[in-house]
Specification:
GO terms for molecular function: squalene synthase [NAD(P)H] activity. The protein is an all-alpha fold and about 425 residues long. The protein has helices at about 1-5, 10-25, 35-45, 50-55, 60-80, 85-100, 120, 125-135, 135-160, 165-190, 195-200, 200-220, 220-225, 235, 255-270, 270-280, 285-305, 320-330, 335-350, 360-375, 380-390, 395-415. The chain has a domain at about 35-160: Farnesyl Diphosphate Synthase (Orthogonal Bundle). It is built from 22 helices and no strands. The structure holds 2-acetamido-2-deoxy-beta-D-glucopyranose (NAG) (5 copies).
Length: about 425
């Protein structure tokens, strides 16, 4: 915490958000009167800290359904991911997982001992029990998406993942992330919180997943390469190197940077859809749930842009304070549009005029600005407010307060 505050010291609004976050009660929900439910949320917390927080803030009607949607897909993913399970064993599980979730008492113990979420499958009967308690409409949506994703995974597991063209890239991202967007939209419409149009606009729901996935794939170049996974499309990296791994060679530094801007520009192509989707979402808890990952993605994309570090360092992240601040601010379309404008301006400002994608990225940033000015005029005032908070050193008193708080917390964590 103290180091997070120090990292955010020149971003007073982040310090404020961090301190508020630190002071907020730790556990808002107590499921101990319902043992089965408590176990579900235990597994959610164990498999995803970040999702656990946003899912628990959803309205009661959707909370369990989305928690189970996540846990079912995580179970499927844990089978797919495990390279210690041979293909002949694995494929039938992937293809029938949508039926397995209806089989009371089913568990799975074939994961290797080092598989991170092994325990989820060992206790999968708990997840199935929870799933079977959901309204049939939610069960059907979860089973349908599980079926489509499981078959997609079985296809990639058999054929291997060769992301050749940008169309292949979109297709791969559709299976692993776009489908999640489609399922969530169907739930939002099925529960009546959102209009039927949300489920109907499958193109926009798909883009929600693609923007997140492409940002992660761009960020995780080195980590994926180390594990011998290649998700960057050959149609893109082939313009800059003979082999994808050649991008890390110091002599290819300039080409690598150009390739990175190409990837950033490709991901930015989904932002227009993301904003249009978020504009449709009226329920406040659904809105935050959808908006938070998207603002994190644009912040991450900004961090990646022109950042040669992605070829030399794994696991680069935005500041903890920035994350907490974004989570706090993402509660209306005007504020989200302001955040997108803020980062689009930073992205544009960082671009190198000698880069071959300088103009493309500039146009993409200009479009975001234009869409927001036209459709979300309230974002202009929000942007001014955000910038006042973001600018370094604009508020001496907040910085002084931050130093005091950081000192107090450092003291407490050292001596308490
Ligand atoms: C949760 O509530 C139960 C009573 O329903 C109580 O005994 C228990 O201490 C509470 N747990 C926490 C962590 O607050
Ligand atoms: C959630 O998981 C973290 C560790 O991953 C643990 O410290 C925390 O106590 C867990 N919370 C609940 C409610 O299980
Ligand atoms: C990759 O796509 C290009 C067109 O973009 C095509 O010419 C080539 O044959 C494809 N290669 C493979 C291995 O599919
Ligand atoms: C992207 O990465 C973040 C941080 O590692 C993770 O929490 C999130 O689930 C990932 N999203 C997708 C769509 O892969
Ligand atoms: C724009 O970039 C320059 C350096 O290239 C930097 O000094 C300036 O602070 C940046 N402005 C914004 C608004 O990010």
């Amino acid at each position: 915490m103290a180091s997070a505050i120090l990292a955010s010291l020149f971003h007073p609004s982040e310090v404020l958000a961090l301190v508020q976050y630190k002071l907020a009660p730790k556990t808002k929900y107590n499921y101990s009167n319902d043992k089965a439910r408590e176990r579900l949320y235990y597994h959610l917390n164990m498999t995803s800290r970040s999702f656990a927080a946003v899912i628990q803030d959803l309205d009661e009607e959707l909370k369990d359904a989305i928690c189970l949607f996540y846990l079912v897909l995580r179970g499927l993913d844990t089978i797919e991911d495990d390279m210690t399970i041979d293909l002949e064993t694995k494929i039938p599980y992937l293809k029938t997982f949508h039926e397995i979730i209806y089989q009371k008492g089913w568990t799975f113990t074939k994961n290797g001992p080092n598989e991170k979420d092994r325990q989820l499958l060992v206790e999968f009967d708990v997840i199935i029990e929870g799933f079977l308690k959901l309204k049939p409409a939610y069960q059907t949506i979860i089973a349908d998406i599980t079926k489509r994703m499981g078959n997609g995974m079985a296809h990639y597991a058999t054929a291997g993942i060769h992301v050749n063209t940008t169309a292949d890239y979109d297709e791969y991202c559709h299976y692993v992330a776009g489908l999640v967007g489609l399922g969530l939209s169907e739930m939002f419409s099925a529960c009546g919180f959102e209009s039927p149009m949300v489920a109907k606009r499958k193109d926009l729901s798909n883009s929600m997943g693609l923007f997140l996935q492409k940002t992660n794939i761009t960020r995780d170049y080195l980590e994926d390469l180390r594990d011998n996974r290649r998700f960057w499309p050959q149609e893109i990296w082939g313009l800059y190197a003979e082999k994808m791994e050649d991008l890390v060679k110091p002599e290819n530094c300039d080409k690598a940077k150009q390739c990175l801007s190409h990837m950033v520009w490709n991901a930015m192509g989904h932002i227009k859809d993301v904003l249009e989707y978020l504009e449709m979402i009226k329920n406040p808890s659904c809105f935050k749930f959808c908006a938070i990952p998207q603002v994190m993605a644009i912040a991450t994309l900004n961090m990646l842009h022109t950042n040669y570090k992605i070829f030399t360092h794994e696991n680069i992240k935005i500041r903890k304070g920035e994350t907490v601040w974004l989570m706090k601010e993402s509660d209306s379309i005007d504020k989200v549009a302001a955040i997108f404008r803020l980062y689009a301006r930073e992205i544009n400002n960082k671009s190198d005029p000698l880069d071959p994608h300088f103009v493309n990225i500039g146009v993409a940033c200009g479009e975001i600005e234009q869409i927001c000015v036209d459709k979300y005029p309230g974002s202009t005032a929000e942007l001014a407010r955000l910038q006042a908070g973001v600018m370094a050193g604009t508020s001496g008193s907040i910085i002084t307060a931050a130093v005091v708080v950081a000192g107090a917390i450092a003291f407490k964590s050292t001596f308490a």
